[in-house]
Amino acid sequence: MKVKTAxxxxxxxxxxxxxxxxxxxxxxxxxxxxxxxxxxxxxxxxYLQSAKQDYLAFLMANxxxxxxxxxxxxxxxxxxxxxxxxxxxxxxxxMITVPPHNVKMxxxxxxxPVVINIHTHHxxxxxxxxxKYQTKHLLFAETVSAKGGN
Length: 150
What we know:
150 residues, mainly beta, BH3618-like, two-stranded antiparallel ribbon, globular
């Protein structure tokens, strides 16, 4: 299967590469099939690329690389929806926002992690209820505070 992307051009995929979001992603309910593509070989960032729309890709990262104390739980309904029997079957990501002209001010949405069952390739963006997290956590807070916010 071939998928067109704005960043990588046309790429060849096998069906097993696709991640299915049965309900779509918040704001994009009609987008159900995505693929995860690395930003580059040596980057902690990834793209969640739509298999249908070449322009639609979300920058993501493993939250535990930046926030070692990050934690969340899935409820029984979420576990059932994704056919998850244990958290070892889960890959977790968070959406990243990069503001124009200041990469050091990148933020991660820790309130709504993207959860993927690594065996079934089903995913869902979960909105955490009563979360202690925010939608905009600075990725490089130490760098920003050391340089006075610039």
